[in-house]
Design a protein that fits this description.
By secondary structure, this protein is an all-alpha fold. It has one domain. It is 65% helix and 0% strand. It has ten helices and no strands. The protein is globular and about 45 Å long.
Length: 222
C-alpha cells in the first residue's frame, strides 16, 4: 500500500482549512443587511444567527457550517483529490475534518475569530462515523431543553462522543471505531470546551443567555 505524500496531504489539509474559513453566518447576515458579528453575542455561528435573524437563517447557517466539515472529510479525503492509495483513509478523513473545524473557529480571513466549531464537527462526524451522530444530538437536545443553554448542550454532546464510541460497540452491533477515531473522540471535547470557555464563565456567573422559543421568530416573522 502506497502512502499519500507529505506535500499532497499538506495541500489537502490547507484546502480543508480554507473550506472551514468560509463565513456562513457573516454571509447570511450580509444578505439580510447586517453584520452578525455586531449583534447578539457577536459570535458568527448558527445560535447567534437564530437569536438575531430567526430560525430560517439559523438553520441555513447550521447546514452550511455542517457542510464545511462534511466536505473535506467525505470528498477531499477521498478519490477526488487523493491520486494514489493510502494506508489509513480514516485518519486522513479525521485530519481533513479537524482542519475544517480549525478553519471555522480560527478563520484567517476574519482575524482568526470564528465560531465554536460544533456544527462543523457534526458535519465531519456524519462523514466519518455517522452512527454516533444521533446519540450526540439526543444529548444536545435534552440538555438545551432542560437548561436552556445551547453552549452547555454543545459541550456535553461533544463530551459524550468518546463514551458512545466505547460503549455502543460493546452493547450492540455497532461497528467498533478505529483507534484514530477513538483518539480524536477523546481529544475533541477539550477543543470544544476551549472554544466555549467564555460561555462557561458566563454560566458560572449566571449571565449566560438562555435559548428561548421566542427567539426563533424574532426576525423571520418581520
Amino acid at each position: 500500500m502506497i502512502e499519500i505524500s507529505t506535500i499532497h496531504l499538506l495541500l489537502i489539509l490547507i484546502l480543508s482549512y480554507l473550506t472551514g474559513c468560509f463565513p456562513s453566518a457573516v454571509v447570511i447576515g450580509k444578505l439580510k443587511g447586517l453584520d452578525i458579528r455586531k449583534h447578539g453575542s457577536g459570535n458568527p455561528g448558527a445560535t447567534n444567527t437564530v437569536r438575531v435573524l430567526g430560525w430560517k437563517s439559523g438553520i441555513l447557517v447550521l447546514l452550511m457550517d455542517g457542510f464545511k466539515g462534511w466536505l473535506p472529510a467525505a470528498v477531499y479525503a477521498g478519490n477526488l483529490f487523493i491520486l494514489q492509495p493510502i494506508s489509513e483513509p480514516g485518519l486522513i478523513q479525521i485530519l481533513c475534518g479537524f482542519a475544517a473545524i480549525l478553519g471555522h473557529s480560527y478563520p484567517v480571513i476574519s482575524g482568526f475569530k470564528g465560531g465554536k466549531g460544533v456544527a462543523t464537527l457534526a458535519g465531519m462526524l456524519i462523514a466519518v462515523y455517522p452512527a454516533i451522530v444521533p446519540f450526540c444530538i439526543v444529548v444536545f437536545v435534552f440538555t438545551v431543553i432542560s437548561t436552556g443553554f445551547v453552549s452547555l448542550g454543545s459541550i456535553l454532546a461533544s463530551a459524550s462522543l468518546p463514551i458512545f464510541l466505547l460503549v455502543l460497540p460493546a452493547v450492540s452491533q455497532f461497528k467498533a471505531a478505529p483507534l484514530s477515531m477513538l483518539v480524536f473522540g477523546l481529544l475533541v471535547p477539550w477543543f470544544i470546551i476551549f472554544t466555549h470557555r467564555s460561555n462557561i464563565s458566563r454560566i458560572r456567573m449566571g449571565t449566560e443567555n438562555q435559548f428561548e422559543k421566542a427567539m426563533l421568530f424574532k426576525r423571520d416573522s418581520e
